[in-house]
C-alpha cells in the first residue's frame, strides 16, 4: 500500500539511531550516569562562544524579514562569497560563489550531489569502513552501491579498488577523517587513489567523480588532511558545520564543486535541480548567516584529543585492538571474538552502547563514538574491563 | 553525463524563482523602489515579537549542546507533544506525538509525504490552480501527475475530478487557502470532495489519500478553513510555520497523519523512511523549539487584509477581473488578453513582476503576491493603470 522501500527504511532504521533511541529509554530506566552511550556522533563540545553571540547579534540587529526570509535556493550570495573566499585562502583552489550550494547539512549535501551525478543504474563505490547511510543515499539516486575492502589498518585496499572499477562506476565516496575509524588518508594514499581513478577512467573511457564527504575535516589531532580538489579535477566536496561548530541539529553545510572540473557549471545546475526536486527550498537562513560569521572559527578539538588519548590508553591496556585515530571522534575496535555484532550485543549487557561494524562494511569491528564527556569515558572503563574479562574467561 | 531530470530542473528553475532572481537584479539596476516585485510568497510581515524573544531566551538559557544537537529523526518529543496538543485543542482529532513528524518546511513535508505514499507509476491529482512544485515533488516520488480543472470562481470542477479518478490515483493534493488564488474551500465543497473520493475508492476498490497542504491555514480574512482530518480518514496534513510565523527561510514545519487512518502508524514509518532516504536527518533543532514556544501565536494578518483590500479595490476599478481572495496573500487575476504569459511579459515592461498562471495550471491568469509593503502596492497602481490602458488602447 505505502512505498515499500521507504516503509522498509522507516521500519528498520539505522543501527546507530536505533541504539541511540534505546540509550535514551535505558537512561530513563536506570539513570543517565549508568548508561555509557557511545552510539551517536553528537558533538559533546559546546559550539565556540562566538556562535551563540552571532545568533543574538543577528536576531538583534538584522531585519527579521530578511534574516528569516527565503534566500536564493543555492544560498545567500554574501554567505557563498565568504565561504568561497575561505576555501581559497586555505586551499588555493580558485573557487567562486557560483560553485557553492548551501545545504541542510552533510546528509543533504550527499543526497543532492549523488542525485545530481547519478543516472539510474550507475554505480557508487564506498571505501570500507564507511558511514552506513551512504548506501541509502546512493540508492535514492538510483545507483548500485558497492563496497571496497580496507586493509587491516583501515586504509584503502587498492587491489580490491582496482578490481571493482568497471564502466558503470560513476562516483566514489571518500571520507577522511573517517567515520567510523578516525583514519586520515595521507597525501600518498590520496595521490595513489587519484592515479588509479585517472588511469581507470582513461582505460574505460568514462568519468569517475570523487564525492568528498568531510564533516570531520577540522577534527584532527595533528595530521594534515589533503584537500581533494587539489589532487583530482572531478571532485565534489560535501561539507557540514555539524562537527566543526557543534551544530548537528541545525542542519547547515554546503556543496563545493571543483572549478577545475570540466562542465562544473552544468553539475552545479544539476545540484540545484536535485535540491529542488528533493524539497530543499533553501538552507536554514539564520544558520547560513551564522556560518558566514563563524567561517574562520576553529573547532575546539582539545577535549576530543584528550578523550581519544584516555580511551586509547585504557582500551589498549585491556587488550583491545584498533588503529589509533588521527581525526574525527570515533574509535573502531576489533571484536575480541572476531564478530562485531556479538561484541556490540555483549557490550549492551554492561550498559556499553557501541555500534557493530556490519553496517560500516567491516563485520569484525565495532564503533565507539568518543564525543562524550571525559567523565563518561572514565566511568565506562570498569565496564570495558568486565567485558574483556568475559572474553578471556 | 549528469542526471538528466535534475539538470533539466536546475536549468529551467521554477518560474517564480526565476522572476524573483530577475527582480533582485533589476532592483540593483534601477533602484529598489522602481521595481514592483509581486513574484514571491516571502512574507512581508515581521514574525510575532515572541519569535525573536524565544530565540534569544533559548540561546541564553538552554545548554547549547542540547539546543543545537540532533533531535530524534522525527523531531524532539516535547515539541511533537506540544504540537499534537495544539492540534487537538483546535480541531479535536485525537492525534498524538507518534503521528507528528517535524520537517524542514512545507516542501519537505510534501516530498516526504508523497514519497511515503506513492509506489512508482501511481497517480497524484492536483486541483488547479495549484502550486507548480507539486508536479516536481510528485515526479520525484515516481508518480504520474494530473491536473483537475477549476470552475471560473477557482473552486473545484467536480465533473472533471470524477472523470479523472481511475484505479491508479493514489493521492490528491488539497491546498486551501489556495496558492495562487487565495480561495478557501468551504465546508460544503470539502464535504462534496470527500464524498466523491469515498465513492470512487469504494467503486474502484482502491484507497485515495488526501494530502492537505496548508501553510496558509492561519492567513485568512474571516472564512473558516475546514480541518480535513475531520472529514476524511485517509488524510495527511502538511504544515509549515513559514507563513504563520513569517519564517520562510528557516525551513520548519511538520507532517501530521490522521489517527483515524487505517494503518496510520505504517504510513508514519514510511514517512520516517522517506525523510531518511532524502537526507533529512532532523528538522532544524533551534526552530523546532521556537515553533513549540510559539505554537499558540496568531499570525498577524491585519496588514495582509489591508493589502488585499487596497489591491482588490484598485484593480477592480481599473477593470481587472479576479475572484476576491478569502485567505493566503495572493490575487489570481485574469489576463485582459486572456493569455497569462503575455500578461506577465507585458507587465514586466511596467516593472511589475507577476507570475503567469501557466505553471499553476490556468493559462488565462497571472498571480500577484501581495505579501509586500502597502507602500509598494500604492506605488504600483500607476503601473497597473498604464498596463490596463495598453489593453484598452
Strand content of chain A: 5-15%
Structural class of chain A: alpha/beta
What separation lies between the terminal Cα atoms of chain A? 51 Å
Write down the CATH topology of the largest domain in chain A.
Answer: Aspartate Aminotransferase, domain 2
Largest interface: A-B, 86 and 86 residues
The averaged pLDDT of chain A comes out at 95
Give the oligomeric state of the chains in this entry, treating copies of one chain as homo and distinct chains as hetero: homodimer
Largest sheet of chain A: 7 strands, mixed
Topology:
Two copies of one chain form a homodimer.
Chain A (H helix, E strand, L loop, with lengths): L3 H9 L2 H16 L5 E2 L11 H13 L2 H4 L9 H15 L8 E4 L2 H12 L5 E5 L5 H8 L3 E5 L9 H7 L4 E6 L12 H18 L4 E5 L21 E6 L12 E5 L6 H14 L7 H9 L8 H17 L2 E2 L7 E5 L5 H9 L3 E2 L1 E2 L8 E5 L4 H19 L1
Parallel strand pairs in A: 1-11, 3-4, 3-5, 5-6, 6-7
Antiparallel strand pairs in A: 2-8, 7-8, 9-10, 10-13, 12-13
Helix pairs in contact in A: 3-11, 5-11, 6-7, 6-10, 12-14
Amino acid at each position: 500500500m505505502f512505498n515499500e522501500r521507504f516503509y522498509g527504511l522507516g521500519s528498520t532504521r539505522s543501527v546507530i539511531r536505533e541504539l541511540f533511541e534505546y540509550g535514551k529509554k535505558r537512561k530513563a530506566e536506570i539513570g543517565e550516569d549508568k548508561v555509557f552511550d557511545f552510539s551517536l556522533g553528537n558533538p559533546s563540545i559546546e559550539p565556540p562562544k562566538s556562535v551563540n553571540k552571532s545568533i543574538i547579534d543577528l536576531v538583534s540587529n538584522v531585519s527579521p524579514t530578511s534574516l528569516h526570509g527565503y534566500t536564493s535556493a543555492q544560498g545567500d550570495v554574501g554567505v557563498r562569497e565568504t565561504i568561497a573566499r575561505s576555501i581559497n585562502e586555505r586551499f588555493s583552489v580558485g573557487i567562486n560563489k557560483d560553485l557553492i550550494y548551501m545545504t541542510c547539512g552533510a546528509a543533504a549535501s550527499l543526497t543532492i550531489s549523488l542525485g545530481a551525478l547519478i543516472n539510474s543504474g550507475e554505480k557508487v563505490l564506498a571505501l570500507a569502513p564507511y558511514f552506513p547511510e551512504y548506501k541509502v543515499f546512493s540508492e535514492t539516486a538510483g545507483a548500485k552501491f558497492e563496497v571496497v575492502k580496507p586493509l587491516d589498518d583501515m586504509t584503502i585496499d587498492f587491489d580490491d579498488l582496482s578490481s571493482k572499477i568497471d564502466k558503470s562506476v560513476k562516483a566514489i565516496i571518500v571520507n577522511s577523517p573517517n567515520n567510523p575509524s578516525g583514519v586520515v588518508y595521507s597525501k600518498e594514499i590520496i595521490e595513489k587513489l587519484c592515479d588509479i581513478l585517472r588511469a581507470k577512467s582513461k582505460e574505460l573511457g568514462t568519468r569517475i567523480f570523487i564525492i568528498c564527504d568531510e564533516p570531520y575535516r577540522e577534527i584532527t589531532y595533528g595530521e594534515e588532511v589533503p584537500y581533494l580538489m587539489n589532487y583530482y579535477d572531478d571532485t565534489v566536496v560535501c561539507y557540514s558545520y555539524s562537527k566543526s561548530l557543534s551544530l548537528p541539529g541545525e542542519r547547515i553545510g554546503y556543496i563545493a564543486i571543483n572549478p577545475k572540473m570540466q562542465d562544473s557549471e552544468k553539475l552545479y545546475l544539476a545540484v540545484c535541480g536535485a535540491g529542488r526536486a528533493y524539497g530543499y527550498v533553501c538552507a536554514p537562513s539564520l544558520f547560513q548567516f551564522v556560518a558566514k560569521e563563524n567561517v574562520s572559527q576553529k573547532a575546539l578539538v582539545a577535549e576530543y584529543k584528550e578523550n581519544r588519548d584516555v580511551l586509547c590508553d585504557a582500551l589498549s591496556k585491556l587488550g583491545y585492538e584498533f588503529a589509533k585515530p588521527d581525526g574525527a571522534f570515533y574509535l573502531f575496535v576489533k571484536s575480541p571474538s572476531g564478530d562485531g555484532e556479538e561484541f556490540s550485543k555483549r557490550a549492551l549487557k554492561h550498559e556499553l552502547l557501541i555500534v557493530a561494524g556490519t553496517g560500516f562494511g567491516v563485520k569484525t569491528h565495532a564503533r565507539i563514538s568518543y564525543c562524550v564527556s571525559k567523565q563518561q569515558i572514565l566511568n565506562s572503563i570498569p565496564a570495558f574491563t568486565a567485558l574483556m574479562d568475559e572474553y578471556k574467561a
